[in-house]
Design a protein that fits this description.
85 residues; mainly alpha; 3 helices
């Protein structure tokens, strides 16, 4: 893949960037799905200890149900440092 700098309307660059970003999002989503499935299985398995079940439930709470303000989310994603063009 060529290394383009963004100047004007370079469709190849935009298409490649979109493809890379989309692939990254799909992989991250799939990984999150697998983690959730693993935790659900562990929580349903009788031989899994109570401590592990509590840790898994806590990890789910912290990972997926954490409330973030819009400002915090934009700062974490470095939205303000991105160029406007």
């Amino acid at each position: 893949m060529k290394n383009y700098s963004f100047t004007g309307n370079e469709q190849d660059y935009l298409a490649a960037k979109f493809h890379i970003d989309e692939t990254h999002i799909l992989q991250a989503s799939h990984l999150a799905f697998l983690k959730i499935q693993s935790w659900k299985f562990a929580l349903r398995t009788p031989s899994v200890g109570t401590r592990f079940k509590n840790e898994a439930a806590e990890m789910l709470e912290q990972s997926f149900f954490e409330f973030l303000t819009a400002k915090t989310l934009l700062e974490k994603e470095n939205f303000n440092s991105a160029p406007l063009n």
